Amino acid sequence: GQQSINLHDLANETFVMFAREVSPATYDNVIACLQQAGIHPQTRHAAMQWLTVMALVSVGQGVSLVPGCMEKLGMNGVRLLPFRKIKVTTPAYMAWRKDVSDNAVRDAFIASVRATVPVH
Question: Taking the alpha carbons of 70, 111, 89, 84 in that order, is the dihedral positive or negative?
Fold first, then answer.
């Protein structure tokens, strides 16, 4: 019935992780968040795709920290909750060819990203 969760509430849980060899930065960010909360995760599985992570969670193999976009999946047996008191962000970069001009779709996409995401 909760609408959010404290990271500390996961201290005694078993984790399903995204495999470090696939994305070291993602894995390291998750581990850093957990360690800041004093959690040294017991990992049961490390999956190579987010869908696999979600599927393992859905069959009771553990809990996981996943990107917010996974909420759109609506996978049976999985409930996604935001964390209280922390805001986790992951840097992202956008790249495009500078020598291609007059690309309306690209320009609209860039404008949409700039309007939605804080640019540093």
Answer: negative
CA distance 76 to 11: 24
Single-letter amino acid code for the residue at 20: R
Tell me the whole-structure pTM to 2 decimals: 0.71
pLDDT digits over 87-117, tens only? 666 677 788 888 877 889 988 988 888 888 7
Burial grade of 41 (CB within 10 A; 0-12, 13-18, 19 or more):
buried
3-class SS letters over 47-108: ECCHHHHHHHHHCCCCECCCCHHHHHHCCCCCCCCCECCCCCCCCCCCCCCCCCCCCHHHHH
How far, in Å, CA of 54 to CA of 39, rounded?
A: 21
Q: How long, in residues, is the chain?
A: 120
The CA distance from 90 to 111, in Å, is 20
Smallest CA-to-CA distance from 91 within 46, 28, 37 is with 28
Q: Which of 93, 94, 53, 88 is nearest to 73 (CA)?
A: 53
